[in-house]
Design goal:
Layout: H1 3-13, H2 15-18, E1 27-31, H3 36-51, E2 60-65, H4 71-79, H5 93-100, E3 102-106, H6 112-129, E4 135-139, H7 146-155, E5 168-172, H8 180-193, E6 199-201, H9 209-220, E7 233-241, H10 250-275, H11 284-297, H12 303-309, E8 310-313, E9 315-316, E10 318-320, E11 323-325, E12 343-349, E13 359-365, E14 372-379, E15 396-402, E16 406-414, E17 422-430, H13 431-435, H14 442-451, H15 461-480, E18 489-490, H16 497-504
Parallel strand pairs: 1-2, 1-4, 2-3, 4-5, 5-6, 7-13, 9-18
Antiparallel strand pairs: 7-14, 8-12, 10-11, 12-13, 14-15, 15-16, 16-17
Helix pairs in contact: 3-14, 7-8, 8-15, 10-11, 10-15, 11-15
The structure holds NADPH dihydro-nicotinamide-adenine-dinucleotide phosphate.
């Protein structure tokens, strides 16, 4: 590797590259601060941003929940989840600095008096830390609570910036609604209190380095784009496989299922990114304008096509990583007769000039053999094979999102020896190998973007509703059809047989989980 390449790679991984300047000082109000997401993901992400000098030294975090707690207690709870403890288990100076900026506020989500007190507390923090009136409200409660919080923020006058130099933003966690109507209602309510430019609908998948690299790969390199269409692409496969079960989220998952939890959000967003046209520039409006066109071009499903092109599954008992695991219906908190799907696979078509006739196979599931998230672009076979008797696998380009972040291109190569034998080989790019470090947690990337006002990686009202419009007919068809014969795949397998048939009936095959 040349010394210039090494310097460039070092620059990519230096902290100064990640945050050229700290963001504006601000108060972050985290609703649901006593919860799982806040502790496991949001507080560690904020800590990561603080130690990388991405947050202003004067930022303040105000945890909000109903549980009574002092600032110190909240800090102690947060400390348990921060990375990089000292060998004695105590907090080092970075921990101490961070914890000093944490405060806690308890109250009822629908009590107007609570929000009057909150406004006063925010004014105090503003004065103490000279935050310039900048405020970020983060909704990390169960979604049923969002409307109450939004309404009360509006009533208390907390949605409006204090002056023309300050900003107020709101982050809304997924799931954004449970169908199109509820997503529309939530959008309407948010938009009656906040402006669209203040609303950041988060999908943490989009904060992953490899997902962002997808745009760089497609639109920063000249050689792939000419191949990126029905002329050369045979099909596209998008996989988001988990080996985990429902963990602590059975109550949520029972009412959601794989289609709502994964397909409506992450998987359709990946579809939009892989299929979109080049944006006019890399700003939030231009990128999101292109993504919505893809979602609007996906051929809608109806009762017949749902029966033909959509497969659902639920795992039974099995073995994952050589350990026996219970079936979904035996998980704590799950109805023993549950009809919730833990797996979904579907075939979609994007009816536009670029993708006409190219099937997009999407699949996601829990308790599959191995965790893997990838997009595989499968190219057409060479038009004429001159190597008699030798089959040559078609080329594929795989963008690996998890667990090994990178990109590989497969092609046929002559295997050594006197006989002409063609073997499939790959050219691999691995993030860790190339840049010497793993990528940053998605939540850190997204919170950083939000504090800086960059909405490129966040969902817009129209794209959330368009994604629900695609998923709703599937939910309806399942609701109105016969009860599913669950469980239909053992934990630790690659999913139900019917999912394999979906691709095989077209003469294609899913890539094995890596
Ligand atoms: P929790 O169930 O842990 O709830 C967060 C907090 O909200 C609780 O600590 C509780 O605080 C409060 N709360 C819980 N139930 C109610 C209720 N019925 N009414 C009012 N307040 C309530 O949720 P998570 O932290 O797991 O998730 C928060 C949000 O983030 C959800 O929308 C979830 O879908 C989303 N999300 C979560 C992920 C995760 O990994 N956990 C991943 C992706 C998204 P208190 O009782 O103190 O008020």
């Amino acid at each position: 590797m040349s010394s210039r390449a090494t310097a460039a790679q070092e620059a990519v991984h230096s902290d100064s590259y990640f945050c050229e300047a700290p963001a504006d000082p601000c108060a972050i109000v985290m609703f649901g601060a006593s919860g799982d997401l806040a502790k496991r993901k949001l507080l560690p992400a904020l800590y990561d941003l603080a130690v990388h000098s991405c947050l202003a030294p004067r930022f303040r975090l105000l945890g909000f929940a109903r549980t009574e707690m002092s600032d110190d207690e909240f800090g102690r709870q947060a400390a348990e989840f921060l990375p990089g403890k000292t060998p004695s288990g105590g907090a080092d100076s970075a921990h101490r600095d961070f914890l000093q900026q944490l405060h806690y506020f308890h109250g009822e989500y629908n009590d107007p008096g609570t929000y009057q007190r909150l406004a006063k507390r925010l004014d105090e923090l503003d004065r103490e830390a000279e935050l310039g009136g900048n405020r970020l409200f983060y909704l990390a409660t169960p979604p049923s609570v969002y409307p109450r919080i939004v309404e009360q923020l509006g009533r208390a006058g907390l949605a409006k910036p204090k002056n023309e130099r300050s900003w107020v933003r709101i982050v809304v966690e997924k799931p954004f609604g449970h169908d199109r109507a509820s997503a529309q209602a939530l959008n309407e309510q948010l938009l009656s209190v906040f402006d669209e430019s203040q609303i950041f609908r988060i999908d943490h998948y989009l904060g992953k380095e490899t997902v962002q690299n997808l745009l760089v790969f497609r639109f920063g390199n000249g050689i792939f784009e000419p191949l990126w269409s029905r002329n050369y692409v045979d099909s596209v496969q998008i996989t988001a496989a988990e080996s985990l079960g429902v963990e602590r989220r059975a109550a949520f998952y029972e009412s959601a299922g794989a289609l709502r939890d994964m397909v409506q959000s992450h998987v359709l967003q990946l579809t939009a990114l892989i299929a979109m046209e080049s944006p006019a520039n890399f700003d939030a409006t231009a990128v999101r304008n292109e993504k919505i066109k893809v979602l609007q071009s996906i051929r809608p499903l109806d009762g017949d096509s749902v029966r033909r092109d959509v497969v659902r599954g639920q795992y039974g008992p099995g073995c994952v990583n050589d350990e026996p695991v219970p079936g979904y219906r035996q998980e704590p908190g799950v109805n023993p007769n549950s009809a919730t799907e833990t797996f979904a696979a579907l075939k979609l078509f994007i009816d536009n000039w670029r993708w006409s006739g190219v099937p997009f196979y999407l699949r996601t599931g829990k308790r599959l053999a191995r965790p893997s998230a990838e997009i595989a672009v499968m190219f057409k076979r060479a038009p004429h094979l001159v190597f008699r008797g030798e089959a040559v696998e078609p080329n594929s380009l795989v963008l690996n999102i998890q667990p090994q972040e990178g990109i590989s291109l497969s092609f046929g190569a002559k295997a050594p020896g006197s006989k002409l034998h063609i073997a499939p080989v790959t050219m691999d790019f691995r993030y860790r190998r190339a840049f010497g470090a793993g990528s940053r947690e998605a939540y850190a990337t997204l919170i950083n973007d939000c504090i800086r006002g960059d909405a490129t990686l966040f969902d817009r009202a129209d794209s959330v509703e368009a994604a629900w419009a695609l998923v709703d007919p599937i939910i309806d068809a399942w609701k109105n059809g016969p009860a599913p014969a669950f469980p239909n795949y053992p934990a630790g397998s690659e999913g139900p047989e019917a999912a394999f048939d979906l691709a095989e009936s077209d003469g294609r095959q899913w890539r094995p989980l890596p």
